[in-house]
Amino acid sequence: MNGNPRQAGFSLAGQILYKCSRQLALVHLLLAMALFSLSSPVFASNVWMVAVPVANVRAAPQGDAALVTQLPRGEKVTLVGRQGVWLQVELPDNQLAWMHQVTVTQAVDFFGLSLQNAERSELREAIKAAGVEVVREVSAYPYDLYNPAPWWTGATEMAVGYTPEDQMFAIAEITFRSQDDTEQVREIAEQVQDDLGDWDSVSGRRAEGPVEFEWQQGGVRVLVHRGWPDTTTYLTYEIPERFARLQAALQSR
Q1: Which of 175, 188, 164, 153 minimizes the C-alpha distance to 13?
Q2: CA nearest to 215, candidates 239, 197, 188
Q3: Which of 100, 165, 202, 207 has the highest local Cβ count within 10 Å?
Q4: What fold is seen in the domain 47-106?
């Protein structure tokens, strides 16, 4: 993870627990979670975001079609269909129209919320509604900790971090503990691939050594990675600029 060297054998959630035991003497946390066979919930995302300063929305899938409206950067639309390089979308007012694919980027969803716009309070509610068990939610500290096993079989820990000043999503890491399971990292990557499409880059060999699959989408960096010889796999969602602010705030404490 950029700017955050992982201590050997520790997930992000594990590191947070370790730091809390030193920095926050009043907070005592233990994680005791069993291993489960891998079986993921279904990720589905058909939300797209405007990726240019102003995007034209047209009545038909062609450049000279009537202009329906214009949308600003960051506005969200719902994908309905495709025709070549044109996307049929549902606008915020429920109207159907067409946008060229270069003007939008797929939003990365997490528990049904777009990470680019997810606030701490609403993401907490969405996480709990999915059946995830709360390990620790303390608003004075930027990380919340969870047991995701009831939601995603095989997942053992989950940490979600937010920017201290405005409580916006910055990073989430889901841990899948394993031993001698060299195929696990690929299996998790393929599940993410079903949602986000082909990875942008991959490094390492599954048979041995560290492995990393990476996606860059809508300002969100998604990683499926492992170290070595521990085959534990980590699925990380990160908005780099926000994560940098979170780390800076922690280092100043």
Answers
A1: 175
A2: 197
A3: 100
A4: SH3 type barrels. (2.30.30)
